[in-house]
Design goal:
membrane; signal
Length: about 220
């Protein structure tokens, strides 16, 4: 009963993680945030693997999911530190885009209440440079929206870690109980200890035919 409850909870949680990861992936694509895009892609794959392992009773797949949740928590903690500029990090660098472009978070210009204005460039400037885009009136700054997204991912991952460990422990206990009461071990025991006695071939005597002939003659 406990295993079924834990499995159902883990399945629902994995489904919720998939939805949240897909939502985050869309906005990271819009902002050309290549580092988060790669992380989200790996996260989606591992969550699908964990979901498959939970449905199909594959503890090894759930173990992979458990290890990944710890890494995912670490990555999202780094993102929070990045946008809050903890430890010398700066949100204005191109770290999230692998220094390929000068794009920033999509929420920087499209957050709740944000008004975007493109200012005329100078003689040495370019229109696609973000120094010539003015954003005003945002209800919540983009860095806090990114922090909220990462905090949600951390919360879901921690809960998933707990449920995954619970499902793995219950599965291991059920396997041990099955072997103890006479499962696969008992079956193999009887196979190993059954004595096979040789069967002697039965010889059919040919003396019956002459006797039958004598009876017919008489």
């Amino acid at each position: 009963m406990g295993c079924c409850t834990g499995r159902c909870s883990l399945i629902c949680l994995c489904a919720l993680q998939l939805l949240s990861a897909l939502e985050r992936q869309i906005f990271d694509f819009l902002g050309f945030q290549w580092a988060p895009i790669l992380g989200n892609f790996l996260h989606i794959i591992v969550v699908i693997l964990g979901l498959f392992g939970t449905i199909q009773y594959r503890p090894r797949y759930i173990m992979v999911y458990t290890v990944w949740t710890a890494l995912w928590v670490t990555w999202n903690a780094f993102i929070i530190c990045f946008y809050l500029e903890v430890g010398g990090l700066s949100k204005d660098t191109d770290l999230m885009t692998f220094n390929i472009s000068v794009h920033r978070s999509w929420w920087r210009e499209h957050g709740p209440g944000c008004v975007r204005r493109v200012l005329p460039p100078s003689a040495h400037g370019m229109m696609d440079d973000y120094t010539y885009v003015s954003v005003t009136g945002c209800i919540i700054d983009f860095q806090y929206l990114e922090v909220i997204h990462s905090a949600i991912q951390i919360l879901l991952s921690l809960v998933g870690f707990v449920y995954a460990c619970y499902v793995i422990s219950i599965s291991m206990e059920e396997e041990d109980t099955f072997d103890f009461i006479g499962g696969l071990d008992t079956h193999s025991y009887y196979q190993d200890h059954v004595e096979l006695k040789p069967v002697k071939p039965v010889e059919i005597s040919n003396d019956i035919e002459p006797e039958m002939r004598l009876l017919n003659l008489t």
